[in-house]
């Protein structure tokens, strides 16, 4: 086994006596940070960089938080409402104002969703049929044959089944 030495020739070791990078230590603070960053929509790479670990380490130690990615935004919003409500209950006027604003914002979002859902059922745009270039050329040729009455001299030659 090769031994590594520092600038002064001493063996390169960590205070624990072990070589290499120390193992990642999961704390409540780091778990909460991962949850918050998931709520903000960050990618796994960005989250790993933020908590100073590799992507495999993030997946290894924080897999339960990563599985709940879709619900983290709702949980963050609920937590904010809870904190505002607690402060408003204590009589904090600023918190009452912020709670009113948050409730109005939530009501607007719900109303917009109801309107979107109602309109989506009735006025759903039908996507146009996608036509390839060969099919488009066939349709154009069929249209020319259908409108051609033989005056231009091409009518008989353009009809399907003509062989020269």
Mean pLDDT over the full residue set: 83
Helix coverage percent: 55-70%
Instruction: Count every helix, treating DSSP H or I runs of 4 or more residues as helices.
Output: 8
Write the element-wise H/E pattern from the N-terminal end onward: HHHHHHHH
Structural class: mainly alpha
Over all CA atoms, what is the radius of gyration? 33 Å
What low-confidence regions span 5 or more consecutive residues with pLDDT below 50? none
Shape: flat
End-to-end separation in angstroms reads 83 Å
Largest sheet: none
Strand fraction equals under 5%
Q: How many beta-strand runs?
A: 0
Topology (elements, then pairings):
Blueprint: H1 28-39, H2 44-50, H3 55-61, H4 63-67, H5 69-89, H6 93-122, H7 133-147, H8 155-158
Helix pairs in contact: 1-5, 2-3, 5-6
Structure description:
The mean pLDDT is 83. The protein has eight helices and no strands. Helix content is 62%, strand content 0%. Among the domains are: 24-67; 70-122. The chain has helices at 28-39, 44-50, 55-61, 63-67, 69-89, 93-122, 133-147, 155-158. By secondary structure, the protein is mainly alpha-helical.
Task: Considering the chains and any ligands shown, give keywords for the structure.
mainly alpha; 164 residues; flat
Summarize the structure.
This protein is an all-alpha fold. It contains 8 helices and no strands.
């Amino acid at each position: 086994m090769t031994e590594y030495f520092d600038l002064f020739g001493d063996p390169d070791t960590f205070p624990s006596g072990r070589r290499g990078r120390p193992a990642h230590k999961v704390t409540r603070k780091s778990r909460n940070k991962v949850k918050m960053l998931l709520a903000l929509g960050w990618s796994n790479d960005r989250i790993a960089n933020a908590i100073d670990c590799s992507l495999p380490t993030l997946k290894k130690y924080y897999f339960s938080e990563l599985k709940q990615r879709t619900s983290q935004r709702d949980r963050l919003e609920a937590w904010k409402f809870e904190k505002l409500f607690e402060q408003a209950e204590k009589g904090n006027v600023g918190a009452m104002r912020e709670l009113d604003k948050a409730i109005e914002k939530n009501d607007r979002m719900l109303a917009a969703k109801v309107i979107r859902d109602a309109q989506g059922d009735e006025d759903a745009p039908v996507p146009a049929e996608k036509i390839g270039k060969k099919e488009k050329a066939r349709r154009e040729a069929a249209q020319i044959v259908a409108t051609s009455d033989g005056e231009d001299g091409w009518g008989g030659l353009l009809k399907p089944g003509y062989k020269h």
